[in-house]
Amino acid sequence: MTDRQDLQKNLAVQGGSPAVTGLEAPSQPKVGVDEFLELADTWGFSAEAQQAIRAAVEGEDIGGGPLLTRYYNPRPSKVTAFEEEAAKFLRTKYALAVHSGTSALETAYIAAGIGPGCEVIVPGYTFFATAAAVVSAKAIPVIAEIDESLTIDPLDVAKKIGPKTKAIVPVHMIGTVCDMDPIMALATEHDLVVIEDTAQACGSEYKGKRCGTFGDLGCFSISSYKYVGAGEAGLVITDDERLYVRAQNHHDTGACWRPDRYAKEREEGELFCGTNYRLSELEGAVNLVQFKKAPARLERMRHVYKTVTGNLRPHKDIVPQQVRDVDGIVGYTMAFFAPDAPHAEVLAEALRAEGVSASVFTSGGARDWHIYRYWEHVLEQKSATAEGCPWTCPYYDKPLPPYADDMCPRTLDLLSRGIVIYLSEWWTEGDCLQVAGAINKVLDAYHDPIEGAAWHEIKPVR
Ligand SMILES: Cc1ncc(COP(=O)(O)O)c(C=O)c1O
Question: Is the N or the C terminus of the chain less surrounded, counting Cβ atoms within 10 Å?
């Protein structure tokens, strides 16, 4: 026997003794008490409180520490719990967590098959992301007017539907609701996809049904600036299993969501090159709690909204925002329209002097990504590369929409004379009456009251 044969016989794989028989070093958590305390510091807890937390948790046996991603997370996932809580609250079958409202929109568009050659109708008043995500999906946004509801005008949508139209995106702005009946009727008539952008109106309802559940998919931003959310997160919801699976694929192209991650495609359209928009377990944990608090917050906001508007006197030449479902809106804002822009500024200034946080939507002509006229990326068809994709796409049957900064004059007019007032869910009955009293005081000073009518009964004259 050669030396080499002896050596091979001695291998553990051949029945010899293993060389590694038990390492002595205990495993240390990768993520442990220090990271936890860094979070406590984010919350702003005092040094003494952090010391007390350290004393309480330092001795805990947390093994290797938690994985803060849903990537093969061995523990019950906070992201999954967040999705379940959101699905319950939003009354939908599937809720998929992603890391922002913008990624939710892009994911929903791509899941719905929006891409080269398609046009998607969006309102001229929404956060720019609604349109930007259309371009990210390689499609072309078509900008439609809003009406006195401050949401997309179904009459203008009807005018803008053409052979290239694939989808309509109603956006439930500042807590209010779109007129979903005519929008859904148009979608049925023209066989269009509807994707609701509910980023600003989580929990709103139209005729008793949650906004976000009317169309094929609903998108939400669950960020610090929304009443549900504390960092950066988003949600895509749907009742359609195929759309859910496609959304899952786009948000996690590494396919951690699949029952058998590396299996072949189960049905056509399931697998394509997506991205990684997975939500972290930290955000999942925080947003789980945020959704648990949402029902009570929604109730408080609606109560404040109804108490304030229920105590307003309608006035001649003042048009209240046309709320499509007074019982269903979230209610953290209220709005009305003055007859012209200069007078709107006068009223807003007078309201602020009375102690009411009022402002004109387009006050001072400041640039604002919520108003289409500042979306030069779209109006001037900007692209990340010289090829000019998607504006130059050969699949797109030109001409492009007639982009111009004055293409939606009604939207600009309404925003120039619209006054928005932010309400607080924490206001007492007395606070609501004070604010309503201040609004009545200012309107009385400039306009004749309309006797015998309630605030929401006043309609615009077209
Ligand atoms: C109407 C609307 N859509 C989309 C978004 C994008 O959400 P996010 O900021 O979470 O990406 C926002 C955020 O402000 C929004 O208001």
Answer: C
Query: pLDDT value at position 366?
Result: 87
For ligand 1, whether the C-beta of 90 sits within 6 Å is: no
Spatial CA neighbour of 249 closest among 112, 67, 86: 112
Q: Is 221 in the pocket of ligand 1 (CB under 6 A)?
A: yes
Please list, in sequence order, all residues whose beta carbon lies within 8 angstroms of the beta carbon of residue 287, skipping any fewer than 6 positions away. 82, 86, 97, 222, 228, 229, 230, 231, 233, 279
Q: How far is the CA of 149 from the centre of ligand 1 (A)?
A: 19
Distance CA 250, CA 106 (A): 9
Q: Is 107 in the pocket of ligand 1 (CB under 6 A)?
A: no
Residue 363 is predicted with a pLDDT of: 84
- Please give the share of the chain, as a percent, with pLDDT higher than 90: 92
Distance (Å) from CA 26 to ligand 1 centroid: 46
Atom of ligand 1 nearest to the CA of 100: 10
- Indicate if the alpha-carbon torsion angle 127, 327, 213, 226 is positive or negative: positive
**What are 219's strand-pairing partners?**
197, 236
Cβ(243)–Cβ(107) below 8 Å: no
The token pair that represents 438 in the structure block: 């201040």
d(CA 342, CA 401): 32
Ligand 1 mean position, distance from CA 7 (Å): 65
pLDDT, residue 74, reads: 57
Among the listed ranges 154-163, 182-191, 252-261, 296-305, which one has the minimum average pLDDT value?
252-261
Q: What is the pLDDT of residue 73?
A: 59
Quick one: which atom of ligand 1 is closest to the CA of 223?
10
What does the pLDDT look like over 189-228, one tens digit per residue? 999 999 999 999 999 999 999 999 999 999 999 999 999 9
Question: Which of 105, 127, 169 has the most ligand 1 atoms within 8 A of CB, as the residue to mutate?
Answer: 127
The confidence score (pLDDT) of residue 1 equals 64
Could you please report the per-residue DSSP string of 340-366? Answer: SHHHHHHHHHHHHHHT--EEETTGGG-
Where in 73-160 does DSSP place strands (E)? 94-98, 119-123, 140-144
Pairing of strands 217-221, 234-238: antiparallel
Is residue 171 within 8 Å of residue 178, measured between CB atoms? yes
Which atom number of ligand 1 is nearest to the Cα of residue 225? 14
Q: List the domains of the chain with CATH numbers.
A: 78-290 (3.40.640.10), 295-369+409-457 (3.90.1150.10)
What is this structure's pTM?
Answer: 0.96
* CA 171 / ligand 1 centre spacing (Å): 10
Instruction: Ligand 1 pocket test: pick from 106, 198, 223, 375 the residue with the most ligand atoms within 8 Å of its Cβ.
Output: 223
